Amino acid sequence: MVQKLLRGRVLNFVAEPQWPEDVASFQYLEDGAILISDGRIIAMGAHADVVAKAQGAEVVDHRPHLLMPGFIDMHLHFPQVQVIASWGSQLLDWLNNYTFPAELGFADANYAARMAAAFCDQLTGHGTTTAMAFCSVHETSAEAFFAEAARRDMCMIGGKTMMDRNAPEGLMDSAQEGYDATKRLIAKWHGQGRARYAITPRFAITSTPEQLEMSGALVAEHPDCFVQTHLSENKAEIAFTKELYPEARDYLDVYQRAGLVTDKLFLGHAIHLEPREIDALAETGAHPVFCPTSNLFLGSGLFDQAGLKARGIQSGIATDIGAGTSYSMLQTLNEGYKVLQLQGQALHPYQAFHWITRGNAQTLGMADEIGTLEVGSAADVVVLDARATSAMALRMEAAETLAEELFVLMMMGDDRAVAQTYVAGAAQKAQGLAA
Ligand code: GUN
Ligand code: ZN
């Protein structure tokens, strides 16, 4: 097996930064290297040490760029690649007017396959190597998603959305059909190569109590699968949910009664939470997911990261394409920083870059596989250029520290700052070309 040695400035988080300047939370090597064999990291450290272990390795010199673990996007919608930037409405109208019509197209296997390739190109072009995605209600869309990820050996998590009410004909299954199709997809894809399955009831509004119950049965039968849905994104959504589920104590209780709430559950948005819901999140270990570009775009509200963290709740961070407005986790941090600023909360660049790498990996329980550059991890690596645009280069002339460089990347960077992305050791971006 031919080895590959990536040389550059290496940044790898080993713990969550506990305060802004917590330099014990990461390793930083000015002249570092990553040695890759068979898609895995077999050595990482100072270049002089790593090169001594290499045997006939192909060398890729990325100096002066920064090598980091590939980014992880904890919540987005694969069938919404052509919904991004749809004007003028908040959640429920946006779903009815733009999103549901677009998702209907994913019944067509050829269209779904073309979109799956485009979707993966966009992710890796922006430095993202793992994502947890909603597919459409159609089994074809999940097939296309997993097949494309497998072709690229990407660690992708996804699931066929289940929805059996309050959606157009052609975009609904039944409780039984959703259960059966999910079973087939889990059997075929979960744990196959790098794929993982997420049981995916879209949200309370589009599922009957029967469908949520059957989702709960799937969770009980497949405790190693992830679960993804939405929670308390928008006030009209919450009011409608309470009408549909009058017996529930609150929105989260709808999912609790169905047996969905465990530490494998990822809840997009979770903005307008009641005290009991926060208690339940803390008790169960379920993960809210902060989607800043989406929350601003749809006018949904401000995610209370500090409040949740103070309760020991581990949140993910994500783009939420297509209500999110960028595939870039750097731009997600940019908007996230501003959302937290509005609440008097500060997101330090060390905390920010930890969050989109090791932090998100930890919420998945997968930090031994993705999100770090530790020996034994998959060789999913992003190469970042903080001087990618003239404005960034100008700003970087006055930057003196690593923290400043990281802050420039997260405030000004996007896919142009991603010089290369490696998935299981394979370069994904054509050199010198945007993806
Ligand atoms: N809630 C239910 N479905 C969706 C979706 O597709 N996007 C967002 N932002 N919220 C949702
Ligand atoms: Zn979503």
Mean pLDDT over the full residue set = 97
Structural class: alpha/beta
Distance between the termini: 28 Å
Ligands present: guanine, zinc ion
Beta strand %: 15-25%
Number of strand elements: 16
User: Which residues sit in consecutive blocks of at least 5 with pLDDT less than 50?
Assistant: none
Radius of gyration (Å):
21 Å
Largest sheet: 9 strands, parallel
Tally of DSSP helical segments: 15
Share of helical residues: 25-40%
Indicate the multimeric state: single chain
Explained architecture:
- The protein is α/β, with parallel strands linked by helices and 435 residues long.
- The chain has 15 helices and 16 strands.
- The protein has helices spanning 47-53, 91-104, 109-125, 139-152, 175-189, 209-221, 235-244, 251-257, 275-284, 292-297, 305-310, 329-341, 349-364, 390-396, 402-412, and strands spanning 4-13, 26-37, 40-46, 58-69, 71-77, 128-134, 157-159, 161-162, 196-201, 226-231, 265-269, 287-290, 316-317, 381-384, 418-423, 426-427.
- Strands 5, 6, 7, 8, 9, 10, 11, 12 and 13 form a nine-stranded parallel β-sheet that branches. The chain has a seven-stranded mixed β-sheet with strand order 3-2-1-4-14-15-16.
- Helix 6 (209-221) links the parallel strand 9 and strand 10.
- Helix 3 crosses helix 4.
- The longest helix has 17 residues, at 109-125.
- The chain is globular.
- The two termini are 28 Å apart.
- Bound molecules: guanine and zinc ion.
